[in-house]
Amino acid sequence: MGATRIIAVRHGETAWNVDTRIQGQIDIALNDKGHWQAARLGEALADEAIARIYTSDLARAQATAQAIACKTSDPVAREVQLHPGLRERGFGIFEGQTHAQIAQQWPAENLRWKQRDPHFAPPGGETPEQLRDRVARTLAELARPHVGEQIVLVAHGGVLDMLYRLATQQDVGAPRTWELGNAAINRLLWTPETLTLVGWADTRHLEDAGLDDSSL
User: I need a surface site. Which of 110, 118, 120, 176 has the fewest CB within 10 A?
Assistant: First the structure.
């Protein structure tokens, strides 16, 4: 059975990442470091054979995807495709709040969130189970037309978390022991029957050059 090779990446850093403020589906732009990370990511993937680049339609993901697209040699891949199924988890009333603010304002809801209750959604948001199902549907939709090829998916921490769980068959409520770094390279292999983890959290492209004022 043929397979689709997948490079899955989380967008570059934003100011709200630094502030530990929940972004969810609010449209927040990359900060200076995030743009630097995205540029480094584009350089790292420049020689990869990429059939298509799919991205969340939120600005931070789009900017990261464009940094990859501008370095690829395939004119089709340079035309980035937006897909709302790659958006971050909807966090409802938590969006725009820091972790500390959430704990103070909604202690009961915060506890269920921190305990990874699979059935809990902040009012107006999604449950982990709903996110997992959305990610699985979107993955199949995007990967199926590209059997025998490689695609790039640019998304968010919650989406990447679910891809890892799907590939390793871990429950949505299991404690997270894996990294979800901004602009890290993660590789998976998709077939209609399985999703396999090939490599995770490769950040070598972000470590071999210092980030100083001249890089921003």
Answer: 176
Helix, strand, coil % over all residues of the chain, rounded to 5: 40, 20, 40
User: Does residue 11 carry a catalytic annotation?
Assistant: yes
Bridge partners of residue 195, in order along the sequence = 190
**Residue from 13, 35, 88, 146 carrying the catalytic annotation:** 88
- The amino acid occupying position 84 is P
DSSP state of 195: E
Domains within the chain, CATH numbers bracketed: 4-215 (3.40.50.1240)
Mean pLDDT, the chain cut into blocks of 10 residues (216 residues total): 93 97 98 98 97 98 98 91 98 97 97 96 98 98 98 98 98 96 98 97 84 36
The answer to whether the pTM exceeds 0.85 is yes
